[in-house]
Amino acid sequence: MEGQWWKGQLAADIHQALRYKELKLPCYKGQSPQLNLRRYFADLIAIVSNRFRLCPAARHLAVYLLDLFMDRYDISIQQLHMVALSCLLLASKFEEKEDSVPKLEQLNSLGCMSNMSLVLTKQNLLHMELLLLETFQWNLCLPTAAHFIDYYLSIAVHESDLHDGWPMVCLEKTKLYMAKYADYFLEVSLQDHAFLNYAPSLVAAACVASSRIILRLSPTWPVRLHRLTAYSWDFLLPCIERLLVAHDNDVKEANKQKGQHSSQPAHNTLFQTTSQPTQQHISHYIQAHQTPLPERKREKQKKRERGRKQRKRERKEKERGTRRGEEREKEEREREERKERKRRERKEKGKGERKEKQ
């Protein structure tokens, strides 16, 4: 896909096209006999892609191709190494420039190949690539969370956001941490096949929301992100909770390895100083949405509230006035009726007196 498309004039159209394509993604059933090895090979693809500095889209597409292929075939461990690397090659050819695609000699020089006593040949790779392409009907345009994340990150942080209820001190630094955390959560989503139960765009949106929770930004899921992603908070929550559980486990593991007893993770591991349990993250979200709005928004709210109360008072006054008017009209009618009865009585009395005189 064209580089930095999310910055162009066609960004909204491309995003819409990706959302349409994800509706037609192949069904993943999670029925591979080697499902217990899936984490190892997903990590292998991630390590190799980092070794050759491949883009996240290529890495995520490679893992997705591997997941779909494993879901359909019973593959030996030795063959799985070739399948995993072939998936990475195909994905890199699809997503990267030609110069960035790993060469056969480079793949054979990897430590995992020598440890397994494996040697890739051009013929074997071509055969495996052909099998993969036929399996996917020559269609590699399969959106992953990595294809959506940059578009969502483009508005993930705004100067109107609050940090711990206060205006942000450094917008650019917050954007940098946001990008790092979003990338971290993207990698977390690669490690568990359960994330394949969610749409890729939803996983990307959940990565952004989880990053905002970790960075203590409020509101955690602002209206602009709701509109851009078309996902509400409630819809994202199950995926967010899964991401935050993985984050907490990583924090505990990092602290355990470094012999720390505090809850602060290593800076180069998780980029930021926060590691509350998941329930505290969710509680923080609730508090974030209860955080007072900026002054001008509060004033608008108060003005709307005053206007609403004023209109309510006016309606009540109008109703009272209407009732009073109706009561006055009723009393006036009753007075007129009494006067009319008295006139008729006097008239009848006068007629009776005249008859008596006659």
Automatic annotation (TrEMBL):
Region of interest (Disordered), ranges: 287-358
Family (UniProt): Belongs to the cyclin family.
CDD domains xref list: CYCLIN_CCNJ-like_rpt1, CYCLIN_CCNJ-like_rpt2
Entries under InterPro entries matching the protein: Cyclin, Cyclin-like_dom, Cyclin-like_sf, Cyclin_C-dom, Cyclin_N
Name the UniProt record assigns to this protein: Cyclin-J
One Pfam family matching this protein: Cyclin_N
Keywords linked to the UniProt accession: Cyclin
Bias-annotated ranges (Basic and acidic residues): 316-339, 347-358
Domain Cyclin C-terminal intervals: 143-288
Organism: Crotalus adamanteus (Eastern diamondback rattlesnake)
Biased composition regions of type Basic residues, renumbered to the chain: 299-315
Domain Cyclin-like: 43-134, 151-245
